[in-house]
Design goal:
Elements (H helix, E strand, L loop, with lengths): L4 E7 L3 H12 L6 E7 L6 H11 L6 E5 L6 H11 L4 E4 L10 H12 L3 E12 L2 E7 L4 E3 L4 H8 L11 E4 H7 L10 H9 L6 E13 L13 E2 H20 L6 H21 L4 E2 L4 H7 L6 H7 L3 H10 L4 H14 L4
Parallel strand pairs: 1-2, 1-4, 2-3, 5-9, 10-11
Antiparallel strand pairs: 4-8, 5-6, 5-8, 7-9
Helix pairs in contact: 1-2, 5-9, 7-8, 8-9, 9-12, 11-12
Length: 344
Amino acid sequence: MAYEVTIGIPVFNAGKYLVRSLDTVLNQSFREIEVLLVDDCSTDNTVSVIQEIQQSHPRGNCIRLLCQERNSGPGIARNRMIDEAQGRYLFFMDADDTLPINAIYTLYEAAGKYKSEVVYGSYKQIEIYDKSRNSNLFQYPLTVFQKKGALASFAYRHYGKFQAQVWNVLIDLSFLRQTKIRFMHARFWEDMAFTYDIVPYVTRAVLLPFVTYNYLCRPNTLSNFQNRETIQRIEIEQNISIIDHIKIGCAELRNKPYVGYRSYDVVMNSFYMVCRILKLRDRITPSFADEELKQIMYHPLSIGDIFHSHRSLMGNLILWSICRLPIRLFMPTIKVMGKLKRVL
């Protein structure tokens, strides 16, 4: 059977979520779907749950299960999906999230209408802590991009208004393969690096105001460590490695008009990371030294590059200057900025 869309889901010890999640996938109004699951060496009943759904659900035959030889994280699982997917488009999803019934149809229709390489839907974030449950709507205005660099300029300029996750994005698979972009071998924020890497290649894209994804945000997941009593330093180091990767990309894009936006965005991410470390310092094992925090904040552009781009000029100049302060001035400056930004 020829598939128009492959829904790729990395799974690891997700047995208790998969029935509900896959039910929303298999009951999509759009029928030409392949469901590609890559199991990352689960130790619970994940594989048996998938096999049961394959056998019992009327559309179970569209599910394909691949098993990794060793636990490698979601990024490597998604790389395998890029290689193995049989659909015309690829849509990444997390194992504990759900889809509205018309999600894939809405995205697919927009891809055809606007001849888009990527289509981003709006989404609902549902935060679940203890017995509390709060939801927030992240909604785009309908926005169409039809020029190379236009999506990059928007994504890098509008910090916090463009999703850095890879789920809820319908991607033309041939376009994705042509870019040769891969996920980093990391367990944290690998989707953020992928998003930063791909948008400069995009010529045609659309942002939709329609909710096409329900993101369940749980404590003690890979993307969430706020409520933990102890945080392993290696988790934060992987976040930092992703930021460093994006900074290297800034240097490679120094002649692009939007590089000033991207540089300001990523160094501000460094700033928020430093503030988060300071706020959670007593919980991080082993801890970070002040000099290490300063290194996290380094700016990827030269002063000449900053003036040449002139995008986010004052912000980049301020951040570039802060990075060069002696440590006795750097730390108080970061703490004052953190209080002004209300993150400390």
